[in-house]
Amino acid sequence: MTELESKYGVKRILNAMGMSTIVGANVVPPQVRRIADEAMSMSFDIDELQAAAGKVIARWTGAEAGCVTACSASGIAETVAAAMTGSDLGRIVQLPDTAGMRNEVVMQLGHNLNFGGEVAQMVRIAGAGLKLIGTANHCDAFHLRNAIGPHTAAVLFVENGVVHPEGNFIPLEDCVEIAGRSGIPVITDAAGEPDVRPLVRAGSAAVITSAHKMMGAPTSGMICGKKDFIRSTYLQNWGIGRAMKVGKEGIAGCMAAVEQWYSRDLEGERRRFDALAEVLARHVPVRRDPGSPFVHVELPESTGLTATQFANVLRESDPVLWVNAADDKGSRPTISLNLRVMDEAAAAAIGEALKRLMDDPREPQKNIPFHDLYWSEERLMKWGE
User: Fold this and answer.
1) Among the listed residues 20, 4, 10, the one whose alpha carbon sits nearest the alpha carbon of residue 371
2) Which residue stretches of 263-359 are H helix?
3) Pairing between β-strand 320-323 and β-strand 13-16 as defined by DSSP bridges
4) How far apart are CA 187 and CA 197, in angstroms?
5) Buried b or exposed e, range 303-335, using 16+ CB within 10 angstroms
6) What is the pLDDT of residue 113?
7) CA 143, CA 274: separation in Å to the nearest integer?
8) First to last CA, the chain
9) For 204-244, how does the pLDDT look when each residue is reduced to its tens digit (9 = 90+)?
10) What is the pLDDT at residue 22?
């Protein structure tokens, strides 16, 4: 048992959900922890450390420049601020008062996601207004051309699998081309994406991603893109970005994580996922998604439970187990597991927990929609009790 568990009473969870913020995002690899720990043991000129991080980010992403921020959400606010102020320090300290500035951000309506906060709110934090175009599942180029005007500061594009999967939206390349005719930068929020390089190549002025979710850095966000725009973004640390600053361990950890992530052995990673799936399969039947870190477990009829009920019982159990998804729409109730943050010991414990509940099913004490594991008002208002 860890000191967090024994001394402070914090419950450790078996994480089959993945890198969601609600379960603490990714685990930090040993080589990244080593660099972050080294940074915490000494002092630096933070501007110099950020400049070094920017070079590492640029080298591995193909961008002109980069910097580290507190998280992806802060990256949205800071890049929007940069679009309004440029490198004018007077304007930077004026925010969120945008008098005299272009202060409107255009975004496709279907891109206004809830990631734990609302994308639109991150825009408003900078003091900008938002012009949403199109509908929840459709947007055409003419919507964007019509929306760009004298007050437009930026176009915000969201690259995320949660965007309506059957929707028809303006591709990033087209957004860059249309906005570029008016000299308007395109900011791309790619918080959970595994590779920002295609988005950089598409011409984004800035691409924002989470360093701690996919890459396994200490809590931090990575911003990369055009040099002048990244400089204007970094200068927000003397304005609204002061409330979003990242520590030296986050900066150093991001550097190490970027190097580790973009140089990783992809075949070795696939073999690791295969090995973890085999560990799970010793306990319950699993179905793989080829080449992905996901496995799926169909519940036998004998459980008498829906996938959501099954997930709720696991969440109420000891040890606590959170799964990635609960699907009750198919021929059989199915739960999905994300292998990315598991080691073999965790996979064995997860497999045992699944088998135990299948053999001895019980209804949850409280059956809540799977989505409400994140967002339920009741859960949030009970925080701290």
Assistant:
1) 20
2) 266-281, 307-316, 344-359
3) parallel
4) 14
5) bebbbbbbbbbbbeeeeebbbbbbbeeeeebbb
6) 87
7) 45
8) 24
9) 999 999 999 989 999 999 999 999 999 999 999 999 999 99
10) 84
The string of pLDDT tens digits covering residues 290-333 is: 778 999 999 999 999 999 999 999 999 988 999 999 999 988 99
Closest CA to 109 of 119, 98, 117, 100: 119
Q: Which residue has the tokens 């994406």?
A: 193
Mean pLDDT for the chain? 94
SS3 163: coil
* Residue reference for tokens 């009473």: 9
Nearest to 13 by CA among 311, 358, 362: 311
Tens of pLDDT, residues 328-379: 998 899 999 999 999 999 999 999 999 999 999 999 998 888 777 666 777 7
Residue type, 314: L
Tokens of 98: 């945008």
**φ and ψ of 282, to 5 deg:** -70, -20
Phi, psi of 319 (to 5 degrees): -75, 155
Please give the full DSSP string across 169-191, using - where no structure is assigned. Answer: ---HHHHHHHHHTTT--EEEE-T
Query: Can you tell me the distance from the alpha carbon of 28 to that of 42, in angstroms, rounded to the nearest whole number?
Result: 20
Which pTM was predicted? 0.93
Q: Tokens 């965007």, residue?
A: 163
Reading phi first (left if > 0) and then psi (alpha if -120 to 50, else beta), residue 206 is in beta
Adjacent-strand bridge partners of 154: 105
